[in-house]
Amino acid sequence: MSRVGSPPRVGDEATLEIEDLALGGRGVARVSGFVVFVKGALPGERTRVRVDRVKAGYAEGDCIDILRVSPDRIAPPCRHYGECGGCDLQHLSSVAQAMAKRRQVIAALQRIAGVEEPSVRDAIPAGEPTMYRFGMDFDWGTGSGGGEVLGLHRAGRPAEVMTIERCLLMPEAANAIRSWIGRRAETLGLKAWNAKRRRGLLRRAGIRISRSTGETLVIVETGRGNPPALFDLARDLVRAFPRIVGVVRREFDRRDRPSGQSILQGRDHLFETVGEDRLKVPAWTFFQPNAAAVGALRETVIRTVAPAGGDAILELYCGVGLFTLPLARAARHVVGIDVSRDAIIAARENAAGAGLSNARFLCADAAQALPGLLQEGRWDALLLDPPRTGLAPAVVEAIRASGIPRVVYVSCDPATLARDVRQLIRGDGLRLRSVSVLDLFPQTHHVECVALLERPDFEDMADGALSVPRAGPAPGGREPSGHPRRPG
To answer: Which domains does the chain have, with CATH numbers?
Structure first.
């Protein structure tokens, strides 16, 4: 290592104590006041580290030897671990993964949101440690030998795709389907898309499997063109795997812009049962990725929102109605918003199938629709489940100005959650009341959070067991005009 007090340099080696686990799953050490993120190291370990990158304020390095092993270190169950870029915590026990993720949520809220002592509940290891995913994407690309393969990206070399014999995050059926698609596409002479040469057809194969029904949907992303072999692939796939209810296609042009979608075989949706609800989930919509723990997440969200019989509840980014339906059973009126036309159509069908007439769904961009909805009347609670990128600034400002007393924020990224919380609690706005942490992504550094924010006057009334006035738009209230809708 370089001289005492100076930053480390690329190629330096040192023996370091690992103090914590960072958001990306790397160990955290310090040398001469400099933070070093160490790949493959765990808290409590004493490791020999080689620095391979130095940035302003921190360095990155590889663990080349472990001199003291953490009691939480386990043998990774997957033979591809370390080569494949999909998982980064298989060497850490399930309980320790959940504990580490809770600490990471606390650190993000302290460092980014400026909350000194956030109330973060113990992490819940929800569902199962393997084979839990509802869906997963596999890419076509160039393997280490130069040939075309269908698999996952290699760790540290994202341009290279490696063949996966068995991915432990998906059910066995998904592995069999992925392997069959790769072999059959090669036999049929279908070529993978080459991003450098801007030619080829096959880009990605997505597999979704309903845990409750076993229905399977395959989504093939391709370039333009209609070679007969592509339709042969879809036809043969359905014949080989009877549980596949549909094979759908999404096309991209040579500039990587979406240019159409179609059904190659069967239908473009499957059904998943969660609790008492049978949910239609179209191919082009988002659904919670942990099929084994989606029920636990839904229970946590509904318990946090705590809907009362007279409540009017607004839900942004509602998807196909996973949370909307149980909210509608407990509240007077619920309005769900999503920018996806397919999701809104499915949500309406799902609510109708559940016999719920007090749930209304609008296809609109949240930032543009929210001001009009807030003018309809008083809302008792707001539920948010945005994409990983978090809330648009316009949405944050509308919420701050709304006066809604209770906001529940579902997030799969502690950093963007903390960023948005920082803005929501500015001045005399909302206050962060609690955060529930669910480990919905075992073996990876990702984590799900359910945060409760309330206005100070609402907290005072709740603490004093006072009733909160209930009001809001009637179930048959008008739909705000001027909302942008996706064409078609």
So the answer is: 13-68 (2.40.50.140), 86-131+288-488 (3.40.50.150), 135-271 (2.40.50.1070)
Is the pTM higher than 0.85?
yes
Residue-wise pLDDT tens digits, 101-141: 999 999 999 999 999 999 999 998 888 899 999 999 999 99
- pLDDT on residue 126: 80
Give the sheet arrangement for strand 216-222, strand by strand. 157-163, 148-154, 135-142, 202-209, 216-222, 244-252, 258-266
Q: Considering only 33-42, 231-240, 326-335, which range has the smallest mean pLDDT?
A: 33-42
Query: Is 412 one of the annotated active-site residues of the chain?
Result: yes
Helix (H, G, I), strand (E, B) or coil at 187: helix
Contact 247, 260 (CB under 8 A): no
Catalytic residue among 78, 84, 318, 412: 412
Instruction: State the average pLDDT for the chain.
Output: 90
Which residues touch 112 (CB under 8 Å, ≥6 apart)?
415, 418, 419, 422
Residue 427: burial class (beta carbons within 10 Å; 0-12, 13-18, 19+): exposed
Give dist(CA 15, CA 9) in Å, integer. Answer: 14
Q: Which position has the token pair 């070093």?
A: 36
Tokens (6 digits) for 162: 């490696």
For residue 377, give the 3-state DSSP assignment: coil
Q: What pairs with residue 406 in β-bridges?
A: 454
pLDDT digits (tens, 9 = 90+) for 63-85: 999 999 999 999 999 999 989 98
Dihedral class, residue 225 (left if φ above 0, else alpha if ψ from -120 to 50, else beta): left
Q: Residue 313: how many CA atoms within 13 Å on its side-chain side?
A: 32
Residue-wise DSSP of 139-173: EEEE-TTSSEEEEEEETTEEEEEEE-S--TTS-HH
pLDDT band at 486 (very low <50, low <70, confident <90, very high): very low
DSSP track, 246-303: EEEEEEE-TTS-EEEEEEEEE-SEEEEEETTEEEEEETTS---SBTTTHHHHHHHHHH
What DSSP line would sit under 317-366, residue for residue? S-TTTTTHHHHHHHSSEEEEEES-HHHHHHHHHHHHHTT--SEEEEES-H
Strands 13-17 and 46-55: antiparallel
In this prediction, residue 144 carries a pLDDT of 74
Provide the token pair at 470: 């209930």
